[in-house]
Amino acid sequence: MIKEKTMITFKEMIQETSDIYSFVFEVPETFHWLPGQHGVFRFTQDLEMTGKSFRIFSFASVEEEHKMLFSTRIAEPISDFKKHLLQLKAGDTMTIDGAVGKFLLNDLSKPTCIMAGGIGITPVRAFMKQVEYSKENPCSLEILYSDDRGEFAYEHDLNTINNNFSGVHLQYISDRNIFTEKIESYAKDHQNESLYYIAGTPGMNKFLTEKLISLGIESQHIITDIFTGYGD
Ligand SMILES: Cc1cc2nc3c(=O)[nH]c(=O)nc-3n(C[C@H](O)[C@H](O)[C@H](O)COP(=O)(O)OP(=O)(O)OC[C@H]3O[C@@H](n4cnc5c(N)ncnc54)[C@H](O)[C@@H]3O)c2cc1C
User: Fold this and answer.
1) I need a labelling partner for 131 at 20 to 30 A (CA). Which of 78, 109, 114, 216 fits?
2) Residue with the nearest Cα to atom 32 of ligand 1?
């Protein structure tokens, strides 16, 4: 289905970690999205750019926050698109196509394990905000957030939600082996009684999907959000 472009207005940039930046926009009330979905972002000015003139980003905020937020990793070599993001000034506009995507948290009454690697935390922030605004204590929402350098985005927001909902259990992990061990241990304990959400690079998604399947998890219980564009 082709969706119309929506014009959004830049408000501010927030540096979350040494190389993750959030971009906050005002959006028209007619624009709707679900936590876990993504959109295609473009500049409205005619900017000089080598490579693609658009990028796909997940919505890291929920509609109830009355702002649209995406976050992205900006590290050398910085693409022209991201150089232009860093130069946005309040009042500048971009467009979004979307929202699209089936990475949705539909049933908080089922045990669920969410695995986020690095920038893959963006849709997970939206999921946690979904819990906060719905005020529905999840039956059991295990969130494993891994970052090799131990730099975690949105810590204040995530900790607040984690502390306010007994059904949410968030762990920050800065060692890949421990991340994998925790996933293995969770899968052995919960088997196909749980849903498994994976958000991260193609390499991480492939590795964890194969790992879960080798542990007996059926593929219909595994839901992935693959951030193509980050290589492996
Ligand atoms: C469903 C979905 C959701 C996504 N959500 C997010 C999100 O929330 N946040 C986010 O940050 N990204 C997200 N992405 C990925 C995003 O769309 C971009 O692909 C990603 O941010 C990389 O963009 P870039 O401009 O840095 O790299 P690109 O210019 O697109 O380059 C792609 C790859 O080539 C490499 N590369 C580029 N130039 C060079 C060079 N000169 N030398 C060596 N290597 C080079 C880059 O390191 C990168 O690995 C999502 C993707 C999908 C499909």
Assistant:
1) 216
2) 229
